[in-house]
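Sequence in, structure out.
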Amino acid sequence: MDLSELREKIDRVDEQMLALFLERMDLAEAVAAYKNEHHLPILNRSREREILAWAAEKSGDRERYAYHLFTTLFELARARQAELISAPTQVEQLVRTALAAGEDVFPQTGTVACQGVEGANSQVACDRLFPRGEIVYEKTFEAVAEAVESGRCRFGVLPFENSSNGSVRAAYELLQDRRLWVARSVRLCIRHELLALPGARLEDIREIYSHEQAIGQCSRFLRGLEGVKVIPCGNTAMAAQKVAESGSRRIAAISSHPCAALYGLECLRDDIQNSDNNYTRFFCVTRQPVIYPGANRISLILACDNRPGALYDILSKLAALGINMTKLESCPVTGRNFEYIFFLEMEASVLEPGVLSMLEELERECEGFHFLGNYAEI
């Protein structure tokens, strides 16, 4: 039998498989109608185990291939059932509210809270997001969250992730605890320099101040210094301001080039970061959920059962809809042994077919589910 004959046979099998698949999906829709009427959950794990055991018994040494085939069928059927089930969910209500609150375009003005002082990277992010915005400087991330939550500021800007040093956990925890929502994000290329008062020399420096993220991003350079104490502070601009106000040539700051001009400092070294590909992402947060036109990213915080396959069940829902996941990070739950939550980000819009239903299914099945927002990144 030559290749063309084999392909003809495969085509005939594929035609039969497609017809059977469509018939199976019709039956899955009928099951959804029954579950809807009798208020039953979509997921029936024991039923799926029975089918997988049957498939394994029938498949011989190709059991693992059959396993993946049927688990994919289950996920597609659940995705379709989720579209048809009418049980109310919080995420559906949130999304409807957020879409209704969105304006035609993302605003260019408004009061914006950010942590730090003039020259901070958060200030640069504010200017990118709101070219005509009124910036209100706060001392801490918590104060930024409070300013937004209280209504004193319409927006807040917080750093959430660095390409070299990972997520800013404190900011994620604020989103989770304060019930703030992500309306936009911006990605900035970060360049660090070692700044000191005019006339200072590198060999004279005994203390270096900066934000802990910047310290981590320049760890290799710092390890090469002897007899120098590295001290974390609020952010890189605050570090530059501290050096300028100290009057001492024995202290320096890891900060940005604009801060050198802003605070009258000189650059001792400009090649101190671990990687030239150093980006920080900032989230614009709001008090109420809002989705603006062009939103194409979704961020979630999830907690799933501590059992084999639990995370796979979550990720398979994205795969079933062809959604690209751009971030997945685990974080231990404080006070609970070996239990984790997951920060998950995907390229998707709640307006795309099946996406909102998928989010509703995650809410129903996950032990913890927190929808952070659907937004665009600039």
